[in-house]
Amino acid sequence: MSIDRRHFLLGSTAAGVAGIASGKIHDGELGGPVQVIHGAVPWQEGTADSPPGVSGSGYSYFTNIEAAFVEAALARLIPGDPVGPGAVEANVPFFIDRQLAGPYGRGDHLYKGGPWPKGTPEQGYQSRFTPAELYRAGIAAVDQYVVVTFQGHTFAQLAAPEQDAVLKGLEAGNIALDRGVDAKTFFSMLLQNTKEGYFSDPIYGGNKDMAAWKMIGFPGAHYDYTEWVSRHGERVPYPPVSFMGRPGWRNAS
Amino acid sequence: MTTKLKPVDVVLVGFGWTGAIMGQQFCDEGLEVVALERGPWRDTATDFATGFAQDELRYMWRHHLFQNLADSTLTIRNNVNQEALPMRRLGSFLLGTGVGSGGVHWNAQIWRFLPTDFLTRSHNEQRYGKKSVTDYDLTVQDWGITYEELEPFYDQFDKVCGTSGKAGNLRGQIHPGGNPFEGARSSEYPTPPMAQTYGPTLFGAAARELGHHPFPHPTGNLSQPYTNTHGAQLGACTYCGFCEKFACGNYSKASPQTTILPYLLQKGNFTLRTESEVLRVELTPDRKRATGVTYVNSAGEEFFQPAQIVILSAYVLHNVRLLLLSGIGKPYDPKTGEGVVGKNYAYQTMSSVNVFFDDKILNPFIGSGALATVIDDFNGDNFDHGGLGFIGGAYIAGMVTGGRPIEMIYTPQGTPAWGLEWKHAAAKNYLRSFSLSVHGSNMSCRGNYLDLDPTYRDVHGLPMLRMTFDFNGNDHKMSDYLTDRAAEVARAMNPREIKLNRRVGSWSVTPYQTTHNTGGAIMGDNPQTSVVNKYLQSWDVHNVFSMGAGAFPQNAGYNPTATLAALAYHSAAEIKTRYLKSPGPLV
Fold first, then answer.
1. Taking the mean position of all CA atoms in its chain, how far away is CA B173?
2. ipTM for the complex?
């Protein structure tokens, strides 16, 4: 870790906290400001640890070819039908794009030091790739496999049953990929990120209109169920709520 | 260059539950105490507010409150014939960091170990013969302390947390509605049990029908407001379902922040320094006494903090690594069985059974960290193990910690993990499914241990800890037997179908299991077989005390926090009454 990531001030006062809270890093990593706390529970304005939501539209990490792959794959991982939205309608490709463009994509929480032997399945993720790098290499490697196997087509150009067959092959590790990509590792990250985008709070760009929560009956960021604890077998009637509230709140005016 | 700081009476290395407990105990005694925490300051109003606390993606899957492995991790392998590789991503267990640490993102499941759990070797050997404690290369030991000695300190912790529950054994009298198998309690729980939702209620009825003894899970998520022994006030839990892996924004979950820090931080003789990581304990030339600790802060500046007493109050894995890096105690060698530091690393043997209904709405999102009805009929030695071929057991809990949909959608046996069939199964079953948790013991054995890795190093250039661990035959037999018992209760709930999630194969770092790592700095009555004595005092360096679940010689079928908190209070009491007057070995 380089020293320039660190924000630092050391000092002491008779009561409270010394240190600077601006640029506060506290995402589990080392390297935030040193604080010396003495005489009182510290409190400082402007330091609330509110979540890093996303805004805007369009892709900032995926290339056009990558976007076509991701949209095609997600349409098969969670297809849309009258029961509930598909991953694409729920805006999950956009969610994944923004995740990969941010700290998660950079492997912010991964140990990245070598050496890098493959290891046993029990030893878990041992790739040198960050998540963003794994998508880049993984998509290219799957398309390369598909072009060879299906006469010049990319994954996005295949019919749905063929796409399903490729995805099942990746899931089972039956397809060998080039470019140093382990098929099972790539597939499991893609599926995990898809479910994350489908079911996480809409502030992160997916779960559009909270439709995935509505489908299963999850009320979202609802905070107090006390009155429902003992009402056994009754359906809780609240529509889902996000950190941004819910549409009904805005329409009420 | 190392800057030498003003000497203090006590330095605390790490500031979670045991650091807060020891800080409060020593500051009340008038000692000058400095706590060094390698992570950041965190508090409810700023960091855990209810307006953004219920965020599954950020906390569970992006590990916002946990140790960032980019800086430092440990290496892992299943046995000595494998090459240990770094745990590159959190999975099986979620290491804490920052003020409060695991005490912030725990479930607050508050259990006492059984009286016989403290006598794992002698009790089982006497009842089932020597083979029962030596098969599968088991290296289980007695703790060197009894339940009766610890009871007042369990009681002390309950009164700090305001634990909600119903006593089953009050001063030897068995009371209906509580756990009839528990050791005798000196007082009732400070607050009554939480109300139970539909799933746990159905579980309790089915268990009772089978002749078992269901009771509400004891919990530090409070059923009603409570003011504790330090004047800290907790509020009633709102059952929001974001407890484990999350911080509570409602002051309803017992944590260092909600129970001890408001009192401790006001004391003039207490100082906390965050972003300060201890590299080693410094010893006198004869290595009989510690002079203090060397630490580095986030600016890369190095300090020596002299202290009369060094309390290792970091997480198990960090305490053991610090002992090894500081050369305190003889490292364990699995080939010879000699040495003690790193010996008897253990974990928890988890399995579960999912239950699916057609006709019942269970509302799984109404939950809390310990919202459960439990049976303890098959834990520890609460049942006859004759002919079963294993020791230990588990509690079986019909539990709803929440219905967080990325992690906790249960689908029936044979459902694919994606596609239309998965989506339909998720939509159909989410409100109508339930999980029974089988929380099993983990018996120490010769090949499971901790030492320093020969290859991988952390940001400071120091060797990482290396974990060598796999479930042994005793663990698998116990878990299979207990999972079958859970399945019987599940079937008695009359569901459409059930799904058994047995503990199969080798330990894997990937799926989350539990953050109950134990051992490696074990306690006992003999310096040849343990690292610390019953007061958690190093046998080798008398002014070093190693707190936490590292002291457990093996892990019982319960959550560890109340026991490690009781051990801390027990240690503090002895330091205050005897050690301060006459520093030296307490045994």
1. 29
2. 0.96
pLDDT band at B27 (very low <50, low <70, confident <90, very high): very high
Question: Looking at beta carbons, which residues of chain B come within 8 Å of A1?
Answer: 70-71, 459
Say whether residue A209 is in contact with chain B using an 8 A CB cutoff: no
Looking at chain B, the whole-number percentage of residues with pLDDT higher than 90 is 98
Answer whether A40 sits within 8 Å of B265, measured CB to CB: yes
**Closest-approach residue (CA) in chain B for A30:** B39
Q: Does B66 touch chain A (CB under 8 A)?
A: yes
Residue B60, token pair as written in the block: 């569970």
Catalytic residue (one of B105, B516, B542, B570): B516
Alpha helix (H) residue ranges in chain A: 64-77, 92-101, 131-149, 160-172, 183-199, 211-216, 247-251
Pairing state between β B372-375 and B394-399: antiparallel
Q: Do B418 and A29 touch (CB under 8 A)?
A: no
Q: pLDDT per residue over B531-562, tens digit each?
A: 999 999 999 999 999 999 999 999 999 999 99
- Asked if A14 has any chain B CB less than 8 Å from its own CB, the reply is no
Low-confidence residues in chain A, pLDDT < 70: 1-31, 250-253
Nearest Cα residue in chain B from A226: B238
Residues in B touching A213 (Cβ below 8 Å)? 405
Which residues of chain A lie closer than 8 angstroms to B513, CB-CB? none
pTM of the predicted model, to two decimals? 0.95
Spans of all domains in chain B: 2-579
* pLDDT given for residue A27 in this prediction: 56
Q: Note whether B266 and A39 are within 8 A (CB).
A: yes
Neighbours of B157 (CB within 10 A): 25
Give the pairing of strands B290-297 and A36-38: unpaired
Among 3.40.50.300, 3.40.50.970, 3.30.70.20, 3.50.50.60, what is the CATH number of B2-579?
Answer: 3.50.50.60
Residues of A in contact with B98 (CB under 8 A): 26, 28
Contact: B273, A32; criterion CB under 8 Å = no
A160 touches chain B (CB under 8 A): no
**In chain B, which residues have their Cβ closer than 8 Å to the Cβ of A228?**
239, 363, 366
pLDDT of residue A1: 30
Which tokens in the block code for residue B225?
């407001």
Alpha-carbon dihedral sign for residues B50, B56, B62, B67: positive
Closest C-alpha among A133, A132, A154 to residue A143? A154
Of the candidates A39, A126, A220, which has its C-beta nearest B268's C-beta? A39
Active site residue B570: no
For chain A, the structural domain boundaries read: 1-49, 64-211
Mark yes or no for CB contact B55/A109 under 8 Å.
Answer: no
Q: What is the DSSP string of B260-309?
A: THHHHTT-TTEEEE-SEEEEEEEE-TTSSSEEEEEEEETTS-EEEEEEEE
User: A117-121, B48-52, B435-439, B490-494: which range is least confident on average?
Assistant: B48-52
CA distance A157 to chain B (A): 19
- Token pair listed for B487: 């399945």
In three state form, how does the secondary structure of B496-552 look? Answer: CEEEEECCCCCCCCCCCCCCCCECCCCECCCCCCCCECCCCEECCCCCEEECCHHHC
CA-to-CA dists, residue A239 to A155, A216, A219, A247, angstroms? 38, 11, 6, 10
Question: B397-455 pLDDT, tens per residue?
Answer: 999 999 999 999 999 999 999 999 999 999 999 999 999 999 999 999 999 999 999 99
